[in-house]
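Lecture 7, part B: from sequences to assemblies.

Below are the input chains for today's worked example.
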Amino acid sequence: MNKKTAFITGILLSLQTLTFAQANIQDTINNWQEELKPVVLTGQYNPQSVDKSIVEVDVLTQVDIKRMAGNTLGDVLNQTLNLSIIPNAGEGRSGIEQFGFNSEYIKILVDGVPIVGDEGFGNAIDITQINLDDIQQIEIVEGAMGVQYGSNAVTGVVNIITNKKSFYKWHITPYIQEETIGNEYGWFDEGRHIQSIKVGHNISDNWYADIIYTRNDFKGFLNNNQGKEYYNPDNGNDGLRGYEWLPKVQNTTKALVNYDKNDFSAFYKFEYFDEQTEKYAKNVHLNPNPATQTLNPTANDVLFRTKRLYHHANATGKLFKKLNYNISASYQEQIRNQESFTYYLHSKTKSNIDRFDYNTRKGFFSRGTLSNLLDSDIIQMAIGYEINADKGSASGLSEQNSGTDTQDKEINTYSGFASAEINASNRLTFSPGVRYIHSSVFDDQIALSLSSKYVFNNDYQLRAIIGTSPKIPNFEELYFYMVDSNHDVRGNENLSPEKGKSIFLHFKKPFFFKNSDFTYETKLSGWYLDVDDKIDLIIVNDSPLAYQFNNIDLYRTWGVALRNKILYKHFTANLGVSYSGESKVLNSSDIKNDKYLYSIQVNTQLSYRIPRWNTTFSTYFKYNGAQYQFVQQLDENGEQYFAKQKQDGFAWLDASIRKDFLNNKLEVSLGARNILNVKDIKTASSGGAGHNTASNSLLLGYGSSYFLKLLYNINF
Amino acid sequence: MRTTRFYILSFFILSCFGFISCSSDDNTANNNEFVVAFKHSSENFLDDSTELTIELVYSSEAPEIGNIDITYTTENLTYGESNDFVTNPLAAEGIISIPVIQGTSGTSFELTKLTEALPNEEKSITFSISNIDIANTEAYTQGNTTTQVFYNPTASLGGTLSPEIGGPNEPNQVYLSLSRKEETLVKRDTWDLGFYSGNDFRVKLNSSIYMFVAALDQTDIDNVRETDVNHLKSGMDFLVEGSDIYVDNPNGDINGTAIQAISENEEENPVYLLKLGHKIGTETPSAGGVAVAGEERGYKKIRILRQGEDYILQYADLNSTSHQEITISKNSGFNFNFFSFDTENIVSVEPEKTNWDLNFTVKTETQELPEGGQTAYGFSDYVETNTLGNVKAYRVSTDDFDYDSYSIADVDENEFVLNQRVIGSSWREVTPPDREVFSNIFYVLKDANENYYKIKFISFLNENGVRGYPEFKYELLN
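Predicted structure of the full complex, as structure tokens:
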């Protein structure tokens, strides 16, 4: 180790002598990024300022991400209104819930291209697997965007825009980040340890390339559990072996080549991601031997390995000096492999090893648009195509029979879309759009959108956005099969896509004050969103009892939100409040209760920068109010009724200090996540007579954790 | 300035290296103990047998080769070819030396008795493990460090039994005699109907393959067509309200069979629709699950009559206009005489009624539906007691009594019940993730010969978590 250290230190020393002239370029960039109105790409044919966009786009900037020391998408979305991160600690993954719909209803894109996931492109993504080290900004759009992004963009879209340029000839950025996991931290066995290096190079005025490697080692959260080697000789089923949150290690390698010349630009982006998650059984088979009065404890453990490969080539430019084109082509693969084995705790050996791919997916995606078709200031037109050849498989669909446990699904989707932007007057713009989706599996679908923007006097802006998007049934809904003498539960290959639609209204006003650094912007939004033909497992036959998935329910949500933003000198503040209701119309159920149940969310962000110290203080706070839902229960007489189930409210509070040293060469972030120490929250349902009948807890966090990030910029 | 930078950079690199080069903060020592014991703490010769295998078990697979030394003491017996008993391998200077083979989990030696004992003679041999040598391993004996072999037939003192129900398809019924330490394997789908050998005329279904039976309002078997019975089929299934009436009472009461008592008056015996249930499952379920029910076996129509002290079984396929007939006698000494539609003949299933206490089997139970009402329902790894052989049992909570110290004085005669369900499925939890054997209960059993045993279940999954590997320990109390 000494030799190696000396070697590396030597290399760095020589690199260091190469570094030169600091100047204030970095300062300028910081200001530029913070002050300027962000330019957005989501839902646009060409990059546009947020103000000009007809679609309402929320932006999480690189500055925000840096303040939160966000390494993966899962680190930064907790603070966003109407979004929640739902962790599955027992599987080591997290999904996004938006407007109360799970991660299969929100589409996740990188540079406009949906990324490969368990249930399709852009769908059911484990957001802890999305590395953010090359991110320019994250754009979030609420509402169905089927015209722009096709199926499964029902509740909204998260579009991650990557950075594709540098201001330096060479830009080398290593960083390390150390985090506690709750109160657990150790140099090797506990905590979270991140190491990363990025090298960017402007090869010429037109060519830029970079490469990034990041290792993210999450050692898991034990909480009350006792780790891998633990067993209780008196009770193998005390549930205390292993971890509460599974440990996992991720390696991400990314590379980019970008070319820019005049009106033409093109890039090729590559990513290779691998992850290993260790799932230790919480219970132990003691295998007592009464004769020898000894135990030979064994545990059925699993290693999950995920590999993801991402290629994306894109070209944008002008044809005939007028038409704008934008073409993306992407090939992606994901393999999830599981290795299950019996672990002998005494001998520390593995046997009965079984390895198989339980979820694979590979596919080709391409989208092209041609915009500015009409040479007119009044009407702009755009047309486009999208092709998605998507082949996947999933396991766990037939527990009783390993032969039919894995099912393949291949969906080829061909879409054409067109939209227009009509400037009816100086004040009124509206944009109708349509997409025709032809699929090799499902009936053809049509997605529609109608957006309009009206600018009042005094900068008041009103946007009305209507959109639809179908939601493709998942593997379980299509292929699940558990039929034996005691059960009959089946998927349904004849399911249709669910139908999502949404209406959003946004009323916005920025205030600028003369001779003052004070600016203020407020936005009031209201929405209605529903998913019809929602798939549910219903009783299709009473005798014998048989269940099957069917298109039957209607889920609805509506709400209002008020978002405010204040900038004053080096002080910024955000305050958002949202109030929304959800209603489920369960058409299969004999008893019905489709009343709206309401909940509130509040988010605030405060940050203050002291330029003299090169230091920024930030806090983020989000309160998720109590949530309610109706659950079916049996009363004393064995009759079914709906009980109102309450999930307690909780709040995320994060804070950080960021300081730049050595002329911005060294960036140090010190912070705390989840200061209010949220771990699990209670869900309880109250019976008809007002007594509590059941109480469960939902694991949401691992308590307060602290991070230190040290990043070094070597620019020359 | 330069030096500051140097330190910062060094810190980076040192840290990065630290993480990659080491992966663990601690590493506890291997637990490489090796324990050897006799499988049972007592043995006895059964019936006329003169051979006995004395089994030795290890706490884990033997890590190396080695050797076990066994010594013996005797009561009114002498070792030797010309005396009372010999062993294989032979003893040399009072020590029987047995090799340990690497990778095995047990070994054994043979005992041959050369003379007989009179019933009132106290004759026994006590074997002891005196020394164990295994290379590089700390080896010792613990638990059953000795085993006592009785010359004259007595009830087994106890031990550990692992009924071979055969893994997650649970293909076997296993009939066990505790006092004889004997197991009888029967493939579940090799029989269909059991004709009661007692005073009553009753016929039971093979509940282990999920059979159902429904009485028809006809008495002419040749007159029944499939179209006459189709409406009954949907009711003869699990999770159907009221389907419990088409199966035998799971408590084992002979008066609770779904087929009514066979009447002397021929016209009172209706034709029955018989659902033959399922073949044994062949699929491989995920670990911890079962796949006990395979292909459906279809339906038959049957009618049962009496002829003196015998039964007459008439049977045919549903649409057949003629039928087969077989006379089935009562089988004294046995609970039932069994018939199979596959062989169309009498088949041997249960041991003699005094020679078994427990039956490990798949079983048709009845239970309440979530929406109310009763239904038939299938259970796996179920344990029936031999109620017709007068085997009684009851359940004890470890809150009230400790298993190890439980003695004959703690037995409460009033608690014993004659019910096949008394052990049933109550000994294990099958719902994931907490699949487990309940450690807070054990059972007391009284066999027909007034032998009292305490029984504690140890496991129902093997070490890989696969279902269908039950194991229990038991001990004679009196």
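Note for the exam: Helices of chain B lie at 2-21, 226-233. Keep this in mind when comparing with the next example.
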